[in-house]
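Suppose you are handed only these lines of text.
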Amino acid sequence: MSTSLNIGEFEITTVQDHIGADRNPTEIYSEVPASAWDPYRDFALDPDGFYRSQWRGHLIRSSNGGPSVLVDTGMGPGPHEHTGKPGELLDSLGALGVSPEEIDIVVITHTHGDHIGWNVSYDGATARATFPNARYLIARADWDHYSKPENSNEAFEHSVKPLEALGALELVEGVHEIRPGVSTLPTNGHTPGHQCVLVESGGETGVVTGDLFHNVAQISEQDWCPVFDWDTTISTRSRRELLGRAERENWTVFSGHLGIDKSIGKIVSGGGKTSWHAL
Ligand SMILES: [Zn+2]
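From them, the structure of the protein bound to zinc ion can be written out as follows.
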């Protein structure tokens, strides 16, 4: 299975950070009865009935040059509690021949901890941008929401807030052109400002979907929502709209959390069911 695919002039590559913790589906999808998972058990869950999320970013580069774009920065340096091991995002970038200095634009799909972890590095209490030459594009709706004291959290304070004082923060709204051929696509609901990243070139389209869905069963059951969704009515609408369009227009989908062996795919329908076809 692929970890990198071309969309016209662009190459989109998964940049692995770490294996997430095992998830109990009936806890994460608390509205979904355990028996509703039965048709999906053999491919959406592990043999023990759990599933394991992955933490990653995506690198977007063009064969014509121009800015290198990193979508999301994973869970961060760690070491992480469930494995005792550090995050690997910078090592994964290094294996692709890319140094942190070579990232020109970081775009964050949403400001949850597992998507912003490498934004900022600390020397004691002093913060610096991990990608020192990058502008960091963050949805204004997420910034406004999580900047309020009642909504803030440690991850946001640690990995997003310092970007403002570092002069690296750029707030974006609506469909925002990141570079020609690459733009944000608002798909809110998971958070107030959740956004996908759309890549269009040579008649092909790819989309990096952040947390539009977490488990492959949600491609078939598009109204299933994890407890992490901020507004499930809005997140369901965004999921349906984007996955519908991805299927109709034959987009290639780069998922945020599916296993590395099936993280890139197409949305296909047959036999009365919509499902994930890993590439
Ligand atoms: Zn996530």
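What can we learn from it? The radius of gyration is 18 Å. The chain has one domain: 4-278.
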